[in-house]
Amino acid sequence: MTATAPTTTPRIGRTRRRARPSRLAAAFWFVVPFVLLLAIWAVTIAVTDTPLRTFPQVNDVVGAIGDMIASGDLARHLGASLARIGIGAAIALVTAIPFGVALGASPMLSAFFSPLLRFSVALAGIAWIPIATLWLGYGNGAVIFIVWNAMFFALTYNALLGVQQIPEQLLRAARSMGTGRIRIFWEVLLPGALPSIVTGLRIGLGYGWRGLVAAEIIATNAGLGYALFLAQSQFDTDVIVASMVIIGILWLLMDRLLLAPLERRTVERWGMKAVS
Amino acid sequence: MTAMVIDNLHKRYVDRYTGEEIVAIGDVSFSVHEGEFVSILGPSGCGKTTVLNIVAGFIEKTRGTVTVGGTEVTAPGPDRGVVFQSHALFPWKTVLGNVTFGLRMKGMDKARREQAGRDVLELVGLSGFERKYPHELSGGMQQRLGVARVLVNEPAVMLMDEPFASIDAQTRRKLQQDLTALFELRRPTVFFVTHDIEEAVFLSDRVVVLSGRPSTVRDIVEVPLPRPRNWHAAVESTDFRTTVTRIESLLSGEEAHVGDGS
Ligand SMILES: Nc1ncnc2c1ncn2[C@@H]1O[C@H](COP(=O)(O)OP(=O)(O)O)[C@@H](O)[C@H]1O
Ligand SMILES: [Mg+2]
Predict the structure, then answer these.
(1) Does A270 sit within 8 Å of B136, measured CB to CB?
(2) Domain B2-79+157-251 carries which CATH code?
């Protein structure tokens, strides 16, 4: 039996020489729209002579961010927000994924729960803030609940979909090699559903992030949402926009540093296209 | 010794949407001896895959018995290894991870199963590809891995459902040649499904020829070709040609029969 040895075949994802220029180009095209936005913003404010109490100029916002860093406010708000989204997301992951995978494994259960889940995805997160504060009061508990709630349904639903999309033959192959009911969860259902779970995580984190900001505006005295609220009550438009910018940047970082590498190491490496 | 016995097998499907009943397998009986290569051949839609799926334990029969290694089949189990037409490799596992999967399920320790995995990969010509993922392999290599993944578990019977049907003609010839060599070396018991007459004759010790749906066994044809076999010698031998012709007439007799009935 002959098959050419793979000595000349480069390992996918490891080709440094080719990756570098394309990555640089990608970074460039990532930044361009933001530079353009900044330029339009600066020019518009200057031309229309908009006062600070209506909307800040670019350098006002940069100054506000500088002040927030210097005073330690940024670190305090950032720490509070990241801790809440971290805890909420972690709870959502460990509750939603097993639940969704288990539902997906049973055609009857998934048929029964699918409409409920789609209904709940629409309502998840922000709409629950009144209930959350009624149950848990004003504080970390309510905010974490909202983050969890915002993520839970999207994650569950996508885990369920992911399991349903696993080819029957993979399950049969595993069972014919002696994989029992419990092991099939780890060996086939979970990795097989991963493309869809990653999609769910991306959607869910987006919901969770918005839920976090909204809940912080209402329910706490720290965090980026609270910073927004505080600045609004003091008419500090520069701090408001600074907080908005930071919230946006954080989301981009989360996506780039957490989700994209996760996708690259799993779904892409395995040649399983992400479901969208 | 008999490895597998199929006795008066019958399968009726009920269509999920129309509620219509389809009798796929009318009455099929045959057996496979240990170390024997038996193919089942018949027109498309006659129930070949159905027979294999029942033997594998993937679907239930409506009548009859299937025994493998003396015990009746009720569910999938590691005594029957399946090579799928679609390969059905785990995309999230490396080549080595795929090939050692069954041994890991059996609880074999890592060092021993990886050694066994490397040995069988060498046998199917996949040495050096251990750390690749299935999508990085060509179709032919993927199916080599599909065969290796089953062979390494030394099942009582290997079940193969048109494993080379989706592979280009040239590569298919090579894979058939290599499968024969592998069979002659290791002597596993093989139950092979195909609709390709030449493939069945080249690979098999015996060929079970089915009629159209609802299928019955039209005849079981012994292949008189000596082993080791190779394609060059086979296509030139008269035994190969007469066996192929005999099966062709068995199958075309079926067509005439269908023509009479309509
Ligand atoms: N799940 C099913 N439900 C209903 N009919 C089926 C099902 N699976 C197969 N059949 C029918 O049974 C017959 C035999 O199918 P199959 O075993 O796949 O044939 P082959 O492998 O010989 O081509 C076909 O007519 C097919 O339409
Ligand atoms: Mg078939």
Answers:
(1) no
(2) 3.40.50.300
